[in-house]
Structures are given as C-alpha cells and as structure tokens.
Amino acid sequence: MTALPSPFVQIDGVAMRYGGVEGTLALRGASLDVGEGEFIAVVGPSGCGKSTLMRLVTGLWPPTEGTVIVAGKEVSGPLSIAGMAFQNPTLLPWRNILDNVMLPLEVVQPHRRQLRSQRGHYEHKARELLKLVGLAGFEAKFPWQLSGGMQQRASLCRALVHDPRLLMLDEPFGALDVFTREDLWDVLQDVWMARKPTVILVTHDLKEAVYLSDRVLIMSSRPGRIIAERTVPYPRRRSLDLTYTAEFQDIVHELRDRISDARKAEAPDAR
Ligand SMILES: Nc1ncnc2c1ncn2[C@@H]1O[C@H](COP(=O)(O)OP(=O)(O)OP(=O)(O)O)[C@@H](O)[C@H]1O
Q1: Fewer CB atoms < 10 Å away: N or C end of the chain?
Q2: Which ranges carry the ABC transporter domain (predicted)?
Q3: Which of the residues in the chain have pLDDT under 70?
Q4: 26: Cβ below 6 Å to ligand 1?
Q5: Using a 6 Å cutoff on CB, does residue 46 contact ligand 1?
Q6: Mind giving me the DSSP string for the chain?
Q7: Which ligand 1 atom sits nearest the alpha carbon of residue 53?
Q8: Annotation: CATH topology of 1-81+166-271
Q9: Where in the chain is the domain with CATH 3.40.50.300?
C-alpha cells in the first residue's frame, strides 16, 4: 500500500490570542489539512478568525498554541512561497501597474538575486500575467487610472508573479460589483487550472466559495475552529451557468444553514 502524501498545509490545534492573556481569543483548537494543489474556501460568521487563520499560515503572526506546517516545515516567519491578495488591492500609488506587479520579485528570493540580470525574463512574465487577466496595454498606467476591478486584477497578478506554491486570498473580490466579481472568478479559475497552486480563499460569498473551490471549510463563531466541511463535486472548467442549477443552490443553502447554526451557537468563555 502506498502512503498518502502529507498535506501541503497542516494546522494542528491552533489557538491565537491577541494582546496577551487578557486579550481577544480569536482561534481555539483550529485544525485543518490542505493537499498540494487543492483549492479550499474558508467561510464562517463575521469575526470568527478567518483572517487570523490566514496570518498564521503566512507566518505574519505566530500562534499562541499549536502548530502550522507548510510544505513540510513549521512556519516561524513570513513565508516566501506564499502569494497574497486582500480585499483592498493596496497597490503602491507611485508605481505603475507593471512595477507594482513586479514588486514581490524585489523581495522574494531567489528572484531578488536574479532580477537585475534577468530583468527581461521577469518583465515578460509580468506582462504575460497582465495579459491573462485582461490588462494588456495598462502596464504603464498608475493605479488611480484603473477601476477598482482592474486594480484587483493587477493585485492578483502581483500575488502570482513569483510563482507561489501557496496562494492566500482574503476576500479578494469583496469590494467589487457582482459582474466584475464573476469575471474575476473565471480569471482565478483559469490561473488555478494553468498553474495549480494550493489556494486558501477566505470569503463571505458562499456562491463564490462553491464555484471556485474543491472543498469548503466552515468555521465556528469566535474563538474560531473548523466545525464542518463540504466537498464540491463539480469538475472544472466550471461555467457560471452551474451557479443557477438547483443542486448548486442546494449546496449554497446547506452552507448558509450551517453558518447560521454556528452563529447561534454559544461561545460562553470567548473573550
Ligand atoms: N490585530 C489584532 N489585535 C487585536 N484583536 C484582533 C486583531 N485582529 C483581529 N482581532 C480580533 O480577532 C477576532 C477575529 O478577527 P479576524 O479578523 O480574524 O476575523 P474574520 O473572521 O476575518 O472577520 P470578518 O469576517 O469580519 O472579516 C475579532 O474579534 C477581532 O476583533
């Protein structure tokens, strides 16, 4: 019998308290595994600790208790193999779009070391990514010259330019109108199909979670932990028509009911 490969992301019994012993307990007993190349979505009540979980996986904060292992190593500082995108695109206003997308290459090794001698190669890569998300021709524009949706596309390119094995997305489409959001779902789907990074997506949008992921993890109210999961059965490439089918909507309703139960559940000793 062949052994199963170990998960790419392993979170085991993690607790996180902000601000010392009297501070806010954001997570308690949180455990989850994500396989390499898997796309998972994390949903849960507001304030349950989803963003906190993302910070622990990317090494931006250490857990108060428990372990976080990524690619076989315990996380002990910011992870260079991760690309990140958040609700707010946070592009640097004084850099044009191409230079914004290339920013991680100036920070993350081995790219940082190679950037000067291989600038042409890296620039080509950044331009190809911008083309993939429909931003060819906008390389020399500044963020303020782009719409919110276009800025979010650029921020997705920035998260991908250093070929991260792990893509961490914290409500990346939350601030966008529904049409732009749906366009970007398909952009993300195409990027995932082409490069197969491991993706952890935090979202409040249950339709988005089901449309994009292989598995949806549901968190309890704070202090958050994973209380249930739902496997999504649809092969890719998925089309938006799928979201109008009764079966798809049943899955969304099922998730909504579970989150509503989690919101009602008492968390008496959470502070
Ligand atoms: N830097 C911080 N210092 C102190 N408390 C914090 C900090 N960041 C988050 N918290 C608290 O930790 C808890 C979990 O916050 P977190 O942002 O992880 O939740 P979330 O599920 O992402 O929320 P939302 O769904 O509203 O975006 C909240 O009670 C929040 O107030």
Answers
A1: N
A2: 9-246
A3: 1-4, 266-271
A4: yes
A5: yes
A6: -PPPPPPSEEEEEEEEEESSTTSEEEEEEEEEEE-TT-EEEEE-STTSSHHHHHHHHTTSS--SEEEEEETTEE--S--TTEEEEESS----TTS-HHHHHTGGGGTSTTHHHHTTTTHHHHHHHHHHHHHHTT-TT-TTS-GGGS-HHHHHHHHHHHHHTT--SEEEEESTTTTS-HHHHHHHHHHHHHHHHHH--EEEEE-S-HHHHHHH-SEEEEEPSSSB-EEEEEE----SS--GGGGGSHHHHHHHHHHHHHHHHHHHS--TT--
A7: 18
A8: Rossmann fold (3.40.50)
A9: 1-81+166-271
